[in-house]
Design brief:
Strand 1, helix 2 and strand 2 form a beta-alpha-beta unit. The mean pLDDT is about 90. With about 160 residues, the chain is α/β, with parallel strands linked by helices. It starts with a helix and ends with a helix.
Length: about 160
């Protein structure tokens, strides 16, 4: 939602400007990272000055401070694109990731089609982008999509990784 995007942008800008902040961890709520954008918002008129996903992901990527995604539940569509913009990704063993928007005739629109191949290679990325399939965390680790898979508290593991880097 626009509220989530604006909060993410504001939080990132505050963290980057605060010298006491050494790293940033992004997580979802209620055991889910993000199921992506609400497609109903695609047809509503854009308001000037509202947050857009692509520029926010670029803001994450450009952060001079390490940004770690704590992926629980699902990271799908725009949610996976947010995780791709992070410098590191920790996933719970039961998490699933993917870019399912192709199944309704859409391509990932926040540069996931560029970031995913850079991270895991073109053949694996093409499979994920064109099929829309959800991949489990263990496969994501093998592909290099995530840096760590944990069975414990994902947020705590992501904070440990952030402190380490």
């Amino acid at each position: 939602s626009l509220t989530v995007l604006q909060a993410l942008e504001d939080g990132l800008k505050r963290a980057d400007a605060d010298p006491s902040v050494k790293a940033v961890m992004i997580c979802g709520e209620n055991g889910k990272f993000s199921a992506g954008a609400d497609i109903r918002g695609f047809s509503s008129p854009k308001k000037r000055g509202t947050a857009a996903l692509g520029p926010i992901i670029s803001l994450i990527e450009r952060s001079e401070k390490p940004v770690v995604a704590a992926i629980e539940g699902v990271a799908l569509g725009g949610g996976l694109e947010v995780a791709l913009g992070c410098h590191y990704r920790v996933a719970h063993v039961k998490a699933r990731m993917g870019l399912p928007e192709v199944t309704i005739g859409l391509l990932p629109g926040a540069e996931g089609t560029q970031r995913l191949p850079r991270l895991i290679g073109v053949p694996a990325a093409l499979d994920i982008i064109t099929t829309g399939r959800h991949i489990p965390a263990t496969e994501a680790l093998k592909l290099g999509l995530v840096d760590e898979v944990v069975e414990e508290n994902t947020v705590e593991a992501a904070i440990r990784l952030a402190n380490k880097v």
